[in-house]
Amino acid sequence: MAGALRLQLLLGSRPLGYFITLEGPDGCGKTTQTALLVDWLRAQGHDVLQTREPGGTSIGDQVREVLHSLRNTEMHPRTEILLYSASRAQLVHERIRPHLARGGVVVSDRYYDSTLAYQGYGHQLDLDALQQITAFATGGLKPDLTLYLDISAEEGLKRRQRAAQAGAEWNRLDAYALDFHRRVRAGYHELIAAEPARWVVFDAAQPVDALCAEIVAVVAARVPQP
Ligand SMILES: Nc1ncnc2c1ncn2[C@@H]1O[C@H](COP(=O)(O)OP(=O)(O)O)[C@@H](O)[C@H]1O
Ligand SMILES: [Mg+2]
User: Fold this and answer.
1) What Å distances lie between residue 132 and 82, 119, 136, 175, CA to CA?
2) From the alpha carbon of 26, which atom of ligand 1 is closest?
3) Nearest CA to ligand 1 atom 10
């Protein structure tokens, strides 16, 4: 038993740090809350790596451009999934695992649950295949805690449209039909039901500051002391 544990530590299959991901439908406030949470964690003295998907590395940012470009409307969902997974593999191996191995905290704006929700439930691709591709890309690295910001598809879309009118990016995924976004949200709810210990659900319709206070309270109770 002790030998097996030592071997696991040597192989680095369970990093020392703490890995937090934020998930939820488009417009729920992930990017806003990621920045606030990272500020709070740093103020507490944590060594934080803030990252996002797709992207987060030089190679991953190039893949992100391909994924988000409005020119790429003919992209097949299978292509989409492999591109997300390619970006994720690079991010995990180049940045996330090394940071966790140093004992740091990683906060990622989306991770593989997005693939399961968007490609699995949204596009209705084979979930078992997606789980296998995901496990290969990440080497099996799971978040310690996933914060789910819940909002209706309609409200999420309204927020993204308002933001786009004010000059924010309107990308290829934003252009999918409302039905697709409804399936994504229902998919997230299934993922949460299947693994309730890893997820905490928040009402993302509340004001930014109130939501941030709830998130900080949950993280403060779980993240190890710096
Ligand atoms: N709690 C909130 N209430 C109202 N608007 C919000 C809230 N959180 C974020 N927004 C706004 O909604 C839009 C989408 O937020 P963003 O953080 O980019 O969401 P996501 O990254 O989940 O798509 C932005 O214009 C943002 O300013
Ligand atoms: Mg965002």
Assistant:
1) 12, 13, 6, 28
2) 23
3) 29
